[in-house]
Structures are given as C-alpha cells and as structure tokens.
Amino acid sequence: MAKPKGQDMIDWCAAWDAADHTDKLALCAIAGIQYETARHWRSDSEVPTVENGSVEQPPRSTLTTEELLETKPSVNLDFVTFDIETSNLKADFSVLMSAVIKPFGKEPIVFRGDDYPEWKNQRADDSGLVKDIAKELKKHAIVITHYGQRFDIPFLRAKMVKYGLEPLPQMFGIDSWRIAKNNFQVSSRRLQNLVRFFDIGEKEGVDGALWMEAAYNGDRKAMDAIVEHNIQDVLVLEKLACLTFSYLRSIPKL
Predict the structure, then answer these.
(1) How far is CA 195 from CA 180, 192, 238, in A?
(2) pTM for the model
C-alpha cells in the first residue's frame, strides 16, 4: 500500500490515533507495512495529534477497526509448510526440480520443473519455476520448514538473486528441525526419524536413481515419484509443526 495522501492520510491518522497497540498492528497488516514505517507515517504527517483533548480530533475514518480487520490484507495471515526437491544441495551446482507449498488445512500447491517448456531442452534454466514458487510463497506470513532455514530458503534465495527477482518480503519462519534440536533428545532430528518416532504418518526415502532419471533424463515417472515424496513431506511436516508448536518460544523473521 502506498502512503496515503490528503483526506486519506487524515483518515488514516485518525484511525491510528484512536487505536490501541493491537489495533495498530492490525492497521499495519492491512496496509502491508512494518510497525516502524507506520510510526514514521504518523510522525511525518502534518495532521495534528490529539493529546488530552487539547487539539480538535481529525475526522475519523468511515471504517471501524472491525471493518478494517475484515478487509483483505496484502498477505494471507496464515502459515504454510514448504519443501523443495533439488538435483543437488548447492544452488550453483543444481536445479530446482519441484516444490510444494501447503497452506494450513488446505490442499498442497505443487510446482514441478517438467511442467515448464525449458525442461525439455534447457533444464538448467529453472527461472520460471523459481519465479512462480517465490510469487506464491510471498503471499503468506509464516513459512514452516524442516531444516529449511539452512537449506530450502537459502537455496531459493540464491536462485532468486541469480534471476534478478525481488527478495522475499518480511516474513516469519518456523523450523521444526530447530525445535527438535532444542527440545528432543533423539537419535536423529531428520524429518523421517521424527515422523516415525512420533507416529504421525509415513515418510519414506526415494531411490537416488530416481533423481538421476528425473534430473538428467527428464523421466516423467521418476518426477512423479519425486513430487509425491515432496507432497508427503509437507503433509507430515504440517502434523509435526502442530505437535511441536507448544515448544515454540518465539517466531523469528525468515
């Protein structure tokens, strides 16, 4: 949202002055701006500030706080589970093969490299896939991964920089691997081991030969298996996230 002008700015300042801290955060979410940005908007404006009734209050917004909260914010104030599959572990030696973004309680959104025309003869060009993944991911406020803050997100960011894409906006990230590391004394914090130990579903590995067939030969059936593995990862990750939320002390920026 662009900074309001004229009467819109007067109305916005009136809503800001009348709001408590919680309502101010809601106004920031609706405008798609940070709290500090909103404070600068208010302090830099020429609209008088109401203090102890000594200054006539500017005209109030025609929208109540409740009505503002019902309007569509710039992002979905939800959380999604996110996982990618790649041909290697380093962005400069690898291509993105698939990704799945699953909003909580909704169907997974699947991206696969072989749906793009470049896959046939220019498989090293995963720009279209990267662009579409980033476009969807930035719609959501909280991204949940497993070891994703050390792999999935840095891998995606590296690819985004390579293709000249705008960075992801201010978002928040939850990493279930980190929660497990800080709270559970288990033999392995790998997703497969945690899923098995907590009995929250099935997660099986995929034969490495399938990655070779898909990445280098473009085999559709091999990609099907990899994508199914990718989908299963976000499904069990959602369950693991719900199971471990009570151990979460804060949600850091992504």
Answers:
(1) 12, 5, 11
(2) 0.71
